[in-house]
């Protein structure tokens, strides 16, 4: 696909360009976790994510040219050079996230000029903590600052999501970009994905902690199967809406309707849709439990979510199932589940701080024995969203 925007830069006077050239910005853009509400952001559900304390860092400056951009990834040790006036979809994985963001921004404004950007990531790739949203949102945020584009946070979020839809090809929901941009220290964010209203929920879980166990597998199914799940839910909803004369939203679907249409839906669509309805309710139950400091209930609901994702939504994999089952044997782990799109990546565990080291050691040995793969782990805390850290 050749994208030829051909914007004139007449609106940008030379003085501004010179001023911009002097500025070097440093942006930090975090990955995210999600306590509960998986695969329902694109189904009008609720989600409960947070930004994490692992970020992608961007060093960004205008280079004085009208259209020439260089974007260097330290981690991949490669440089993407592009002309803002005409560029094509990229071939290397990370390129399309970058190109997609630039493309979406250029559909909103002609104020972007040539820039140089260096990217260094501390967010593990392919581990379900959305390094992709961190990349999209950090770049969008940085360009907004650098060229004074006047875009608000929701516009940055949507730019990230559209980049992923149009350039990467994953028809993702809004959760990852939302969490990366809006993250707040020590808070989970309850987002209503239908209205886009959200509430910041304080999370103080000491002596428990949030621990991620990384399977270090990323089964290649993810993008294709993700879009398939989305299409299956849309198909099921279409049928339910017709049958019960309801407005087409999973919010209007109650379990009784699913029972009545089980045969028409068939096993697969029934499973997908009933998972969505159950998971939407679970999020609200978790929020209630969190507010009551009832972490046992939070944990039990996380296990239920995993079961649903594994059996009904079928986005887990043997490695994730193994780690969740392993956690069930440790009484000091209150809950565990796969997190993010699935087919690999991390499990999220709520675990007592006293047993973390022992637990990780035991899990690492067992995982190595079962799959001959090294397990890695890290703790995280809800953190601030994308921000400017130095000018
Ligand atoms: C990916 C997508 C999100 C969300 C999760 C599953 O991370 O980018 O929008 O759908 O999967 O909850």
Question: What's this entry about, in short?
Answer:
The chain is α+β, with helices and mostly antiparallel strands. It contains 11 helices and 15 strands.
List keywords for this structure.
25% strand; disordered N terminus; globular; 391 residues; binds alpha-D-galactopyranose
Structure overview:
With 391 residues, this protein is α+β, with helices and mostly antiparallel strands. It is built from eleven helices and 15 strands. The protein has helices at 14-22, 95-106, 131-146, 153-168, 175-182, 222-244, 255-260, 262-291, 295-312, 318-328, 356-371, and strands spanning 2-4, 24-34, 46-47, 49-62, 68-73, 78-83, 86-88, 115-121, 187-192, 198-202, 208-218, 333-338, 344-352, 376-380, 387-390. The strands form four sheets. It has a six-stranded mixed sheet with strand order 6-5-8-4-2-15. Strands 12-13-11-14 form a four-stranded antiparallel sheet. A three-stranded antiparallel sheet has the order 3-9-10, sandwiched between helices. Strand 9 and strand 10 (198-202) form a beta hairpin. Helix 3 crosses helix 5 (175-182) and helix 4 packs antiparallel against helix 5. The model is unreliable at 1-15 (pLDDT under 50).
